[in-house]
Write a structure and sequence with these properties.
The protein is mainly alpha-helical and 407 residues long. The protein contains 15 helices and 2 strands. A two-stranded antiparallel ribbon has the order 1-2.
């Protein structure tokens, strides 16, 4: 079982690394092309049908870029498509969702103090919500396709606020905010897969057939690309939120998540206005700082901690009944609970790190996988071995986990 534990950990590391790499590629290309599009200039030397051009310098060379609003008169021999950055980001992100939250539902997805759910119910809600997000968003875009795009963004924001409340009413705080990020990222990736790429293929097909492409396809694709641009920063924040209990483990976590979307809009508005050469709206940074301070203030609400009397899951029961559990309880309470407590006694700590509380037998059994990884198989905890956990004690934790049949 030890080998499977280590293998599972390395698979998760590899998939997480892949997710970060592909996200960097997607976000980088997205930000670049939006900035390029906003910075295009019309000049007398533009070829027919060209919308604008820009000269750029990078890596010791000069680049001359021209954009065709609909399409050129002929199809270039070499055409680069930007799509796999988006697809790979979503696929690797969904793989992380499965590895961490579906396979570790007891630990990360389900919180009995929020809602009692079976594994299949929680996973079903997760999957259905991702599909629901795309269907609702796509309908909003189709309904308001010719309206002021600000109206579309307001309607989308209302949906996101509603989903933030819904997720925090169903899942653990950590899973709720992560799911809100996945909900938004699914919309973004579906924009590429379901709208932007099919529209571009229609334009290419028209060029190959000698037809004049309909400009509406480019207009619709531009609308979805702009939405993706404004949603990117909130998604990044939500994906990082699971490392910070002050974000996900407070009673106002759904309001915090909602305000993060507004901060994403204000930050991108500044960059987009600058790239378009329309001035420096410095007021956006003041608004962003004010919103961030409100978020920080809301985060001071008492952190949610699992009650000691909560019923043990089947996995936690297995660890609680395994040989050596009593010894491990004594070790953890002596070496870890001064920090991992509802009210930590370690100087400078005001809440349990990562919202992990290890004061009772039930809590220790519930956190068995993380205890094994952090303090048994590795020496990550206690940090700097500040509580002087002995090698024999780490060995006892490993023996206990193995006696329970591993993870």
């Amino acid at each position: 079982m030890y080998d499977w534990l280590v293998l599972g950990e390395w698979i998760e590391i590899a998939v997480r690394w892949l997710h970060v790499i592909t996200a960097i590629a997607w976000i980088g290309s997205s930000f670049y092309f939006v900035a390029l599009d906003l910075g295009l200039r019309k000049t007398p030397s533009l070829p027919p049908l060209a919308h604008g051009e820009e000269w750029q310098v990078h890596g010791g060379g000069f680049y001359h870029i021209q954009k065709y609003l609909v399409a050129p008169e002929f199809l270039p021999e070499h055409l680069v498509w930007f799509k796999w950055e988006s697809y790979a980001t979503w696929l690797s992100g969904f793989a992380m969702l499965v590895l961490v939250y579906y396979l570790g539902a007891d630990l990360f997805l389900i919180d009995p103090t929020v809602m009692e759910l079976a594994h299949w119910q929680a996973i079903g809600i997760s999957l259905a919500s991702l599909a629901f997000g795309w269907l609702v968003y796509n309908q909003i875009c189709k309904t308001f396709v010719s309206a002021n795009q600000t109206l579309v963004m307001v309607a989308l924001f209302i949906v996101l606020v509603g989903m933030a409340w819904f997720y925090t009413s169903v899942f653990s705080g950590r899973a709720a905010l992560l799911h809100l990020g996945a909900f938004t990222a699914t919309i973004m990736s579906a924009n590429v897969f379901m709208i932007i790429m099919p529209n571009q293929r229609k334009v290419v097909a028209d060029l190959k057939a000698g037809r004049v492409p309909d400009p509406k396809y480019g207009k619709i694709a531009k609308q979805r690309s702009t939405h993706n641009n404004y949603l990117t920063l909130p998604v990044l924040f939500l994906m990082l939120s699971n490392h910070y209990p002050l974000v996900f483990a407070t009673q106002y976590n759904w309001i915090i998540a909602s305000l993060v979307f507004l901060m994403g809009v204000t930050i991108r508005h500044w960059f987009n206005t600058r790239h378009a050469g329309k001035g420096n709206p410095h007021w956006t940074w003041l608004v962003t700082v004010i919103l961030f301070l409100i978020v920080a203030w809301l985060s001071t609400a008492p952190l949610r901690t699992p009650p000691a009397e909560a019923a043990l899951s089947p996995q936690a029961s297995r660890f609680a009944q395994a040989q050596g559990f009593e010894d491990v309880v004594s070790i953890v309470q002596g070496r870890c609970s001064m920090c991992h407590a509802a009210e930590p006694v370690w100087d400078g700590l005001h809440w349990a790190p990562k919202n992990v509380v290890l004061e009772t037998e039930a809590q220790i059994a519930h956190e068995a996988p993380r205890i094994a990884l952090q303090a048994g198989y590795s020496h990550a905890m206690p940090p700097g071995n500040l509580s002087y956990m002995e090698p024999e004690e780490r060995a006892a934790i490993v023996a206990w986990v193995r006696a329970a049949g591993g993870i």
